[in-house]
Design a protein that fits this description.
alpha/beta, Nucleotidyltransferase, domain 5, six-stranded mixed beta sheet, 13 helices
Length: about 325
């Protein structure tokens, strides 16, 4: 919990490949950090990061820095503000240009997290989710626009963590030409092979999950969970149910993904890619039952700020 000298409220701006988000948090009565306010800016700065070398283009830098400035202003009454960036900025060849643009736009420093730091803060965030208190051993998959974080826990202790370059925006930009049409069998197989190849060279062998349980976080997981029943959320979703939903969603054109599943139109183009990525990842790890959590990177950073008054290594 927060120390007596810790800030009362903190603002965490999370710069991702697809969106830039602000979490304003305060110490909770039963958890280290609880949400006060949450704001999302759709910027997709990671679109086009498939070039060699990967580069954030000038328009994306302008969009991203302007969005961060707006969010920083929204958090101006917080006792502390921290801006962190993940895969899109971390992997770009011109990351310093983005860092400079952000500082010029809002006067705050942008901290680029390593893949290991990102995974560690996500793991810390799960302690804020009361719904997961009964789980002790599982694999966590946090799918973003630029990367997929896999973190495994055994008896509540972190076992393994790795950041894989399997983000939805990254793969959709690289592997698909028309994202408004239903996913063809050939494109589905192409995405699946790409995901399988990345898992085969990761630190996680096949069927390496500490249990049959997986916890999904990130934008795709959030929007999928909003289409599920209360029973499915409480009792978990079986892998067969997930696969059925994934295949049906991939068979739909963009407008029907929006209408049938309530996915925001700004996200619906990459959703089939996200579902195939998650399906293949779950199969590789050997997970059979899925739970969902909204507590990811931002809550981990907020917990650290509320506990220590600044961002520290964990």
């Amino acid at each position: 919990m927060a120390t007596s000298s810790s800030p009362e409220t903190v603002g965490v701006i999370d710069v991702g490949s697809n969106t830039i988000k602000l979490l304003i948090a305060k110490p909770g009565s039963k958890v280290p950090a609880e949400k006060v306010e949450f704001i999302v800016e759709e910027t997709r700065i990671g679109e086009g990061m498939t070039g060699q070398p990967p580069t954030i283009d000038a328009d994306a830098i302008a969009r991203g820095s302007a969005a961060i400035a707006r969010l920083a202003q929204a958090a101006s009454n917080c006792n502390a503000i921290c801006i962190v960036a993940t895969s899109a900025v971390r992997d770009s060849s011109n990351k310093q240009a983005f860092v400079n643009a952000v500082e010029k736009a809002c006067g705050h420093e942008l901290r680029i997290l390593s893949g290991d730091e990102e995974a560690a803060y996500i793991g810390l965030a799960l302690k804020c989710d009361p719904a997961l208190s009964q789980l002790d051993s599982y694999s966590l998959l946090d799918l973003g626009g630029g990367s997929l974080e896999c973190i495994q826990f055994s008896n509540h202790k972190l076992l393994n963590a790795e950041s894989l370059q399997l983000g939805s925006v990254r793969l959709a930009s690289l592997l698909l030409t028309d994202r408004t049409e239903p996913l063809t069998p050939a494109n589905r197989a192409r995405i699946a092979r790409y995901v399988q190849e990345h898992w085969s060279v990761s630190q996680f062998p096949k069927n390496s999950s500490p249990s049959e349980i997986a916890v999904l976080t990130g934008g795709a997981a959030k929007h999928l969970s909003e289409s599920l029943t209360g029973s499915q959320l409480i009792n978990g979703l079986s892998i067969s149910e997930f696969t059925r939903i994934a295949h049906h969603l991939c068979s739909l054109p963009l407008i029907e993904r929006v209408q049938q599943y309530g996915i925001p139109e700004s996200r619906a183009d990459i959703f089939p890619t996200a579902m195939i990525t998650l399906e293949e990842s779950l199969k590789h790890l050997g997970c059979e039952r899925l739970y969902f959590s909204e507590y990811n990177l931002r809550f981990g950073v907020a917990t650290t700020l509320l506990t220590h008054g600044r961002l520290v290594a964990i």
